């Protein structure tokens, strides 16, 4: 028995929250194991001690539960540290230890599996970097291409750079995930929200080709003038910037001044049929841009493209060159963070085989069971139809909830080793970091381009069962579970399936306190104020327009729409917490130790979170969400009108 466990439970049972609350004769929590035959008590006891180490008993939980539950978090972990950051750091350390071990033992059995040898080669090429040499990126593109910047058509160079995933200016051709079963080619005008910052490092890398370049300040002015013209032509003249379907033949007819077939062949590596359908945004703007660019200074346009490409590479998450300090060699941890973005599939295969596979069966059993409970509860809630929606809309929303999928981990489920050997063969790795970085980008974007045209149903089923992140995705995308509207699927990444968030051995209060609340939040994103418009198959519909004319629904949304950074996050916090409690429910919650542990475990997710452009701070999110669930006040015995009970109750789902 962990020394402080029963002291912790007694403290929970005797908390004074503004009014008396009956304390169970048995303050210990329910110690059953809901889905496994037996749970490890030590794991639970240790975790309860951890939760209690963050509690500030001087604070009143009925006035500010965050201050109570997370009051000592900062003293233990410092400022700007969250539980997700700690989890990510632990995973990076696991990678680093594994790589060092394998590099010392070249006969290790892991070398007999796909991906390992190439992952280690990429890692080695990164950690031996002596100093940045951005010129290497340019040299590796194509020497003939670089020798003809003065005469090469601007779209040819742009298409060549597009093979590495760069498509931010002039005319953007990009392959994206479109719905639950398809990728599509998207065509857009110049991104007028982004401008180039031509740094001295980028200028020096580009101007080493022997040709006469204008001084840095002069080129900066030339690029600025070019961007002003591009913005003028690309910026939409109306609020309607939605995509429309066009066949390639229609695009050729509308914009005849561009050799579309050649550009697509260069970027995608294949010929595209005339009846192939694209998603196109503002074809008129694209036509105007093409006509302008065809008469502009060719050398200037191509130099601008190369500068934008280098800038893009440096801005990719965790490129070790972007934060280089003179005299410092690259460190293993920074290379691992870089590789987790640039070679997503290989790195996650290594993690699965070396660390996660032995736990997967138990984790999936528990997580899928809780998910199915939440799913069933939400289906019933939608069917109950408290907003008096049309039956057609109710049926569509029910289908969306019913057909929602969940994937545990960062890889496709139930695929053979052959899938990874086939993927391994597509990926080229050498001893040069710059070449490996470009090849990793080529590997990803070539695969995506091929997937867009594939008719192999088995192959498509695999690739649409998980989200192989683009190298541009920020860290927060898979730091915690997330709902992906295009696939109608929830992904539960490796960084979440570990303590403090989850353990298959958790007792009910700990299991539901985080897992059910987190999954409930993500499930409710399917019905939030932004993502509700995507149907069961990930296609964009007009559900929000239909909801927008329903008085009861508008009242529920309006009730929540105050002092929130993002309304859709607040709606998911509130409705997800209610869904989790409804799913947990029963006798488990009524026992005093269970209720308090449940809410402390829920709070732990938010400790140290200071918020971002998409989320309120952890304290705001936690206190507001729990203020919307009356069970919290019942468990802690809070007076009406206390800080945690003062919010207006909003009936959103």
TrEMBL record:
Signal peptide: 1-20
One example GO MF annotation: metalloendopeptidase activity
Every Peptidase M13 N-terminal domain range: 61-409
Membrane topology listed for this record: Single-pass type II membrane protein
GO BP term (any one): proteolysis
Gene3D superfamilies reported in the protein's UniProt record: Collagenase (Catalytic Domain) (3.40.390.10), Neutral endopeptidase , domain2 (1.10.1380.10)
Family: Belongs to the peptidase M13 family.
Protein name: Uncharacterized protein
Species per Swiss-Prot/TrEMBL record: Drosophila yakuba
């Amino acid at each position: 028995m962990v020394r402080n466990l029963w002291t912790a439970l007694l403290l929970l049972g005797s908390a004074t929250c503004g009014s008396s609350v009956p304390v169970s004769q048995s303050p210990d929590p329910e110690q059953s194991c809901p889905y496994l035959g037996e749970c490890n008590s030590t794991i639970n006891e240790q975790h309860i001690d951890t939760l209690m180490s963050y509690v500030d008993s001087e604070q009143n939980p009925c006035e500010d539960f965050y201050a109570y539950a997370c009051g000592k978090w900062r003293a233990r972990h410092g400022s700007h540290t969250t539980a997700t950051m700690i989890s990510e750091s632990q995973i990076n350390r696991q990678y680093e230890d594994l790589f060092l071990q394998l590099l010392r033992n070249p006969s290790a059995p892991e070398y007999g599996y796909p991906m390992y040898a190439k992952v280690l080669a990429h890692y080695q090429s990164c950690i031996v970097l002596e100093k940045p040499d951005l010129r290497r990126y340019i040299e590796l593109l194509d020497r003939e291409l670089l020798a003809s910047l003065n005469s090469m058509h601007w779209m040819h160079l742009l298409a060549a750079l597009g093979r590495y995933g760069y498509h931010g200016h002039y005319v953007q051709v990009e392959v994206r995930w479109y719905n639950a079963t398809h990728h599509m080619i998207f065509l857009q005008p110049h991104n007028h929200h982004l401008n180039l910052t031509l740094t001295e490092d980028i200028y020096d890398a580009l101007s080493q080709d022997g040709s006469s370049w204008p001084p840095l300040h002069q080129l900066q002015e030339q690029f600025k003038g070019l961007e002003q013209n591009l913005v003028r032509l690309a910026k939409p003249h109306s609020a309607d910037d939605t995509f429309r379907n066009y066949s390639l033949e229609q695009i050729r007819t509308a914009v005849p001044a561009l050799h579309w077939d050649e550009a697509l062949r260069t970027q995608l590596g294949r010929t595209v049929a005339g009846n192939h359908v694209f998603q196109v945004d503002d074809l008129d703007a694209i036509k105007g841009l093409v006509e302008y660019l065809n008469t502009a200074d060719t050398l200037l346009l191509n130099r601008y493209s190369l500068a934008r490409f280098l800038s893009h590479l440096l801005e990719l998450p965790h490129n070790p060159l972007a934060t280089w300090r003179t005299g410092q060699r690259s460190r293993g941890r920074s290379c691992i963070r870089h590789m987790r973005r640039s070679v997503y599939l290989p790195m996650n295969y290594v993690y699965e085989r070396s660390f996660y596979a032995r736990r997967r069966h138990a984790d999936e059993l528990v997580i899928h069971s809780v998910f199915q409970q939440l799913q069933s509860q939400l289906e019933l809630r939608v069917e109950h139809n408290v907003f008096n929606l049309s039956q057609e809309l109710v049926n569509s929303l029910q289908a969306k909830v019913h057909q929602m999928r969940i994937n545990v981990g960062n890889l496709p489920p139930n695929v053979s080793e052959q899938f990874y050997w086939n993927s391994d063969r597509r990926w080229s790795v050498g001893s040069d970091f710059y070449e490996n970085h470009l090849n990793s980008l080529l590997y990803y974007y070539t695969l995506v381009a091929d997937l867009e045209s594939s008719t192999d149903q088995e192959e498509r089923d695999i690739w649409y069962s998980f989200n192989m992140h683009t190298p541009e995705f920020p860290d927060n995308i898979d730091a915690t579970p997330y709902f992906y509207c295009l696939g109608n699927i929830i992904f539960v990444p490796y960084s979440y399936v570990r303590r403090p968030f989850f353990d298959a051995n958790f007792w009910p209060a700990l299991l539901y306190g985080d897992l059910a609340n987190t999954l409930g939040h993500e499930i409710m994103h399917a019905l939030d104020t932004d993502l509700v418009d995507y149907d069961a198959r990930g296609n964009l519909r007009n559900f929000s327009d239909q909801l927008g004319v329903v008085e009861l629904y508008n009242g529920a949304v309006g009730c929540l729409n105050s002092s929130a950074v993002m309304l859709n996050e607040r709606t998911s916090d509130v409705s997800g917490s209610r869904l989790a409690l409804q799913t947990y429910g029963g006798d488990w919650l009524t026992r005093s130790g269970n209720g308090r542990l449940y809410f402390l475990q829920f709070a732990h997710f938010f400790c140290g979170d200071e918020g971002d452009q998409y989320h309120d701070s952890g304290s705001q999110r936690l206190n507001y969400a729990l203020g919307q669930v009356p069970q919290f006040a019942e468990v802690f015995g809070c007076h009406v009108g206390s800080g945690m009970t003062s919010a207006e109750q909003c009936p959103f789902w």
